[in-house]
Amino acid sequence: MTKIFVVTSGQYSDYGIAGIYSSKEKAEEAKKLFNADNGIAEWELDAVPKHEKGTYYWSVEMDKEGNTQNVELQDASHANKKWDWSPYGDAEKKLVYFGVWAKDENHAVKIANEKRGMLIASGEWTSDWDEWRKGR
Description:
With 136 residues, this protein is of the alpha+beta class.
């Protein structure tokens, strides 16, 4: 596992990379030379989240009846499981968010619907945050 060190500076529209280095010592020196005001980020080179080839990380918002409210392709850096779920929304929208690895939008909805059925059958389904946290 090869690590790289990224020196950044600025915020929002002024944010940018000052340099990428092979050692923390070089990054620290560059940070001083560039007067970079951010920290030094450490990254694993060529790190790709584990996933089945051809799949991408999707979020699916679904109610207990299986009605889909929203489906979006997501940043896979937050995916740490094959699938994940949590309550979402307010008193009006009793939704559950599913994070799934899927080939496309239709595949993501199909997987989320299967997981919805499993949660209902096991008695784990809830759209109440407090109830969900107690079970975790």
